Amino acid sequence: MGIDLITYFNDARFPRLIRLNNPFGITISDQSWIGKIPISERKDRSFEEFQKYHHGILAGLSIIQKYYFEDKANTIEKLINKFARKGTELAPYYEAVSKGSGFKPRQAITWKRESIYLIINEIARYENKGRNPMITPDLFAFVWLQI
Q1: Sequence-separated (6 or more) residues with CB below 8 Å from residue 147
Q2: Residues 73, 81: contact at Cβ < 8 Å?
Q3: What is the pLDDT of residues 5-30, one digit of tens each?
Q4: Sign of dihedral through CA atoms 38, 42, 44, 50?
Q5: What is the pLDDT of residues 50-59, one digit of tens each?
Q6: Is the sign of the CA dihedral 123, 127, 131, 135 positive or negative?
Q7: Residue 19 contacts by C-beta under 8 Å, 6 or more apart in sequence?
Q8: Which residues make Cβ contacts (< 8 Å) with residue 105, sequence separation at least 6?
């Protein structure tokens, strides 16, 4: 199966966010994401749903890119402060993403595919309660070329 055809939509073997093809837990908004399932066809009332898995990764990467460049969120701590939903306890989030990616929470990160891959993979892992978010290097490279 091609990378652009991967979907986990409604696959009961996976956590909720992955089943929505939304590994970052992007909440419902008016944003017109590529591959976003229209509100009239959605079952989940809290999170966006995407047609293919790479669409959800692209949406998450687009958000991270915006925070990085427009808001100068160039550390794990700054990115998570912007990205985390209200009410999220931030210290364990910083720690998990830092440990998994190998970057310190306040270490400046260069916008390079390899660095950003490590960070977003850990953000998606945290959002999915420690489960593997299935963002392979090849899948991420495919998405990276779309931003």
Answers
A1: 58, 61, 62, 65
A2: yes
A3: 999 999 999 999 999 999 999 999 99
A4: negative
A5: 999 999 999 9
A6: negative
A7: 8, 9, 10, 11, 12
A8: 75, 76, 77, 94, 95, 97, 98
Whole-model pTM? 0.95
One-letter amino acid for residue 107 of the chain: Q
Dist CA 76 CA 51 (whole Å)? 29
Q: Is there a contact between 21 and 50 (Cβ–Cβ < 8 Å)?
A: yes
Element (H, E) at 103: none
Surface-to-core class of residue 119, CB atoms within 10 Å of its CB (0-12 exposed, 13-18 middle, 19+ buried): buried
CA–CA separation, 64 and 27 (whole Å): 14
